[in-house]
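Course assignment 3, question 2. Fill in each field.
Student: A.L.
Task: Predict the tertiary structure for the chain below.
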Amino acid sequence: MTVLMAAVPPHERPRERLLARGAEALSERELLALVLRNGTNGMSALDLAAALLADYGSLHALAAARPEELAMRPGVGLAKAAALVAAFRLGRKLDTAVEDRPVLRTFDDVASIAIRELDGLRRERVLVLICDAGNRLRRTAAVSEGSVDRSLVPVREILNAVLRHDGRAFALAHNHPDSNAQPSDADRRATDDVKAAARVAGLRFLGHVVVAGAEWHAVS
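Answer field:
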């Protein structure tokens, strides 16, 4: 039975549900409807999405369809076909990008990234390595610059950076410009503070390393 979008309560419409509950709360049909944006001739975007999934048998088969093939489907046309192909292409690019990102399994993994990011700096910089639930690196973010001994590691800014980028785990790194990678007492205290705060926030703390040139030490 065809259900027009206008007849769907506002809080149950795909766009509103995505904004309120996140994309994970939506079905394949609802996500496709958002890409299609509207239906045609008494058929809602939800109905059109359901018809496409039924005709092709699966989302994977639909994603493999050529744009000119999609454009010929009733209710689709060139604009919707282009939007579908672009959305599926972005998904494939994202999958490739995720596979290329390193996984932080050990302190060596953290240090290799930290050395690359911090090498040659003349001032101390605190770097957050933000990871997903599988410890795969999402991005790095510098949260302070100066002297760790004077200002310590900014715990709140670190947690905010992780949460802002939808991280589930993170590691810390900072450099010692004096070429001595041995952790200081201040480094150890800061690490304990971050570890405790991460536990409260429900984030997994993967550790803290100090680098100096090509040398590094884990803070314990």
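Instructor remarks: Residues 106 and 206 are 8 Å apart (CA to CA). Residues 5-100 form a domain with the DNA polymerase; domain 1 fold (CATH 1.10.150.20).
Grade: pending
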